[in-house]
Design a protein that fits this description.
Layout: E1 38-44, H1 50-56, E2 66-72, H2 75-83, E3 89-93, H3 94-102, E4 107-114, E5 118-122, E6 137-140, H4 146-157, E7 167-170, H5 173-181, E8 187-191, H6 194-202, E9 205-209, H7 210-218, E10 227-232, H8 233-238, H9 240-259, H10 261-268, H11 276-284, H12 293-307
């Protein structure tokens, strides 16, 4: 079965919903031993997936969970898979989750694992920040996408009206890259590992790192919630122990990848269909961290409060039941 992404947001990563066959090790247990908990998670084929690939590598995580990791290509269809119970967890864009929750679904956030993974890419070295984008042509994946509303917030911070002072166009990432190369755009917002790939292979420049731009906006904090782990309320209620174990394992795997991105890149370059050297740099340009649930909730709510005015439906209250409380 092939997923197609009508928005074009993840065209680069379009692929069949495929199992990451890393759970090769088997476990043995006596008849009296409890059966290991099997947890299924859908992840994007990006640097965000690295901790889960590492967790699944041995078949059983350090806390005894059997983790099954599958890639997805289309976020909307992946959400549908989660909501109908065909997977237990979904690693997806933070704003994709809260928009779904605000529209009435029973989705809940477990925690956030990625706090920055995108850059503005282009040819013009004079563009060094969002303040230099007045009068420029920039590309975003689709209206209301996470990069779209964060860019609008950053432009407004520089007193640039995103609807009048710049020309924003929308399209899939590969199309934006081709338009950059053809001189039809001045900059495009791209995630990792695509951003590093086009810098290394197409001679383009990393003009602005979103996390650094966000630090200017916030007074020094580079982190903004980008990719989070979601479950349904029903699954979360029945699996509190598994969630606690998973978050602990996720945190440990994330720390290992941050400590040695070269090793992670060598291990998982094939799974992510990216050259190992490029994947290593892309990982270094991805802010990976798993905070405590309490810190995560505080950070996500603060970020939502800051950017909600730029969301497609405007500000709407985000209830605290959106967050899984351990």
């Amino acid at each position: 079965m092939r997923f197609t992404d009508r928005s074009g947001f993840f065209t680069l990563f379009a692929a069949a919903l495929c199992a990451v066959l890393l759970a090769g090790a088997s476990t043995t247990a006596s008849a009296d031993s409890p059966k290991p908990t099997v947890v299924r998670v859908l992840v994007p084929q990006t640097t965000a997936a690295l901790p889960f690939l590492l967790m699944a590598q041995g078949g059983v995580t350090s806390s005894g969970l059997v983790l099954r990791v599958d890639f997805f290509a289309n976020h909307a269809q992946a959400l549908a898979i989660l909501l109908r119970g065909d997977t237990d967890l979904l690693l997806s864009g933070t704003s994709q989750g809260w928009e779904n929750r605000l529209d009435g679904s029973p989705i809940q956030m477990i925690d956030t694992g990625v706090w920055g993974l995108s850059s503005l890419i282009g040819k013009d070295p004079s563009i060094k920040g969002f303040a230099d984008l007045r009068g420029k042509r920039i590309a975003m994946p689709f209206p209301g996408s996470p990069l779209d509303f964060q860019s609008r917030a950053l432009l407004s911070f520089e007193k640039i009206d995103p609807d009048k002072d710049v020309t924003i166009s929308y399209g899939p990432f590969p199309q934006s890259v081709q338009r950059l190369l053809a001189g039809q755009l001045d900059a495009a917002a791209l995630p990792e590992p695509l951003a590093t790939t086009v810098v290394k292979k197409n001679g383009l420049l990393r003009l602005v790192d979103y996390s650094q731009a966000w630090a200017l906006f916030t007074g020094g904090d580079r982190q903004s919630p980008q990719v989070s782990l979601f479950a349904t309320e029903a699954w979360a209620r029945g699996n509190a122990s598994a969630i606690a174990s998973l978050v602990s394992d996720w945190d440990a795997a994330t720390r290992a990848i941050v400590a040695d991105p070269a090793k992670a890149a060598a291990q998982f370059s094939t799974a992510l269909a990216t050259d190992a050297a490029i994947l290593e740099e892309a990982t270094r340009n991805t802010l990976l961290a798993v905070p405590s649930p309490a810190e995560n909730r505080t950070r996500v709510l603060a970020y939502y409060q800051t950017v909600s005015r730029y969301l497609p439906a405007g500000p709407r209250p985000l209830d605290t039941r959106f967050f899984v409380v351990p």
